[in-house]
Task: structure prediction
Amino acid sequence: MLYSLAGIALFCIALRAVILATAPLRAILAVNVMSSGVFLVLVALARRTPGLVADPVPHAMVITGIVVAVSATAMAIVLTQRLRANVSAPTVEDTPGAGP
Amino acid sequence: MTNPERDTLARLARFGSTLAVALVFAGLAFAMLSLPAEPTGLAAAVRAELPGTGAANPVTAVLLNFRGYDTLLEIAVLLLALLAIWTMRRGQLRPQRDPGDVLESLASIQAPVMLVVAGYLLWAGGSAPGGAFQAGGILAAAGVMLVLAGSGWPQRLSGWPLRVALVLGLSAFICVGVAVVLGGQEFLAYPASGAATIILVLEICATVSIAVILLDMFLSVLRGRASRTDTTASIDQP
Amino acid sequence: MDVAFLFDLLLAALIVWLGWRALTSESLFRAIVLFVAFGLAMGLAWVRLDAIDVALAEVAVSAGLTGALLLAAFGGVQRSGDDDDEP
Result:
């Protein structure tokens, strides 16, 4: 119960950070924290009743989720890199030879 | 927009988002606290079916037997993400700047150890905590460390061998699934007698694919970082 | 109140605090390092929740690889010099 409340709290503060983020990397980091919060809730609910064995199905889902979250993070980072390269390309400062 | 207006807007956004998130928190916490007390999970069902799955570790049994579809599609998602990255990335990998003696010697000691740990996790995954995802993650991390330590080793995997390693996990899953269907069963429903072997083979293939995919994602990010200075000329001017 | 509950309480508080610091830290570099520390603390939480498999995956994949990815991307942001990091 403690951990699921912590997971909800994480999800919420990270959600606020996503809404307010201006730098793309910070938004990506916040989404990762959000996903950690969701995983925490899932796994905490998997052993809600003390004394019983934890439910392995949410565990398997969370392991899958962790790996998918990493691939999504990598994709988002490459997307922002490409975006930055495309946006900054046509400006005068960035053309080769014009810089300081 | 003038500066004071902007400040007001920013403050408004801060206040509004805090309020909205507090409401979300209250709602979720209420939902959590009002859950029924009796257990409703699938733990008992998994335990009852465990003997026929070919894995003594319930999580592995769920991942590779009961919910084999999930894992199949998950590896497909990884591949798709990598394909998207390949279409977007640009630039070339550059040799790392001198990593220093400490990192270099640490990597040379740690990489073999990580290899052994990954192998153990893969092998133990059937009966103890561990499995394809953990082993693949550790292998990829070892590759990342080698790259950062200036070793050209991980990049040497390219061309056809790289592509084969990337699709190995997914194709192994599909082959097993189709073979089982041809044998008259449902897709990915293994016969109980050979389940342990099938799971081991699938896990090995999945480990290789996951490790190579994750490592290649990291290399792509490194490329994009190096490409900042040399791509400007190649981008279409409007 | 027994020791286990106290430990859980402290760990949950630590996780939320690390997450909060990782989200609000002024310097992006510090935020990423805090995120890695957050991932390791999460690994402890998984162990407390009887999810050793998840703990292994979290520590290897989430803390290790995501941290490396973010740091690599951060290096790119820094080199370009003009990027918007929050004040």
